[in-house]
Write a sequence for this structure.
């Protein structure tokens, strides 16, 4: 099966796990052909974070990705280490580097789990199953190999700036490895910034995100990612894309992306 990345090798030294990868055409970005899209890039970092000395009594509760600049297409490394260990919470960091430069730094809080059914309750409401939505080709306004790998569905309520869009893909994250539901879904969240742009027709402003913040009140399952997304532009060159995240079982968390608004030539 086709994949977004090829694993070249992985080493462990002094508690730091370093994996070397090569990106495939399916991870190609939408803003520039010589960069990776942040969605699969966050997915491959989620792979390393999920596999880093896993503990059965903990799960990832928050993921924070800071994008240092262009995410270079081609070969790169991801190094993962514990920043703050503990019995009930752990802070773990992954750094993606290419050609000696940092591309992305990701930090996750891994948190202890326990049965909290007695007080459980959500305010985020479920949305309809993806089968209830029509196939949508609106993502095709974007170029790049990653966008070509995505299946999308939406409904008649779609509009610029706000919509519900379901996404899926048929690719593995790493060639020759089975992709977990967690990695599969996290590897599409960043696409939220491209599904409801507040501009019709040809873009006159760019709006790349500088980060991706994900908070998970439930661990996601399945293959379909539902994005209940709102995009907002401020009047001083800064915007925000916010999403409630869904799988076919219901809402499982939220994401935020801060945007730098830039006039295109």
């Amino acid at each position: 099966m086709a994949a977004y990345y090829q694993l070249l090798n992985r080493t462990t030294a002094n508690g730091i796990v370093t994996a070397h990868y090569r990106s495939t055409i399916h991870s190609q970005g939408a803003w520039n052909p010589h960069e990776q899209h942040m969605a699969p890039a966050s997915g491959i970092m989620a792979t390393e974070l999920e596999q880093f000395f896993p503990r059965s009594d903990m799960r990832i509760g928050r993921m924070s990705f800071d994008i240092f600049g262009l995410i270079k297409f081609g070969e790169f490394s991801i190094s993962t280490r514990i920043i703050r260990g503990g019995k009930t919470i752990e802070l773990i960091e992954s750094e993606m580097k290419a050609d000696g430069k940092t591309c992305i730094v990701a930090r996750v809080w891994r948190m202890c789990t326990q049965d909290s059914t007695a007080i459980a309750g959500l305010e985020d409401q479920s949305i309809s199953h993806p089968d209830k939505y029509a196939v949508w080709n609106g993502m095709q306004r974007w170029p790049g190999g990653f966008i070509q790998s995505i299946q999308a569905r939406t409904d008649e309520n779609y509009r610029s700036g706000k919509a519900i869009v379901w996404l899926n893909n048929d690719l593995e994250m790493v060639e020759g490895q089975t992709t977990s539901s967690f990695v599969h879904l996290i590897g599409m969240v960043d696409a939220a910034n491209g599904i409801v742009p507040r501009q019709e027709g040809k873009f006159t402003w760019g709006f790349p995100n500088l980060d991706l913040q994900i908070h998970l009140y439930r661990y996601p399952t399945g293959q379909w990612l539902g994005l209940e997304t709102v995009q907002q532009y401020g009047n001083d060159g800064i915007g925000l894309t916010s999403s409630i995240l869904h799988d076919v079982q219901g809402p499982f968390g939220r994401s935020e992306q801060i945007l730098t608004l830039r006039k295109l030539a």
Remarks:
- The mean pLDDT is 97.
- The domain at 3-112+128-263 is CATH 2.40.160.210 (Porin).
- The CA atoms of residues 38 and 263 lie 21 Å apart.
- The radius of gyration is 18 Å.
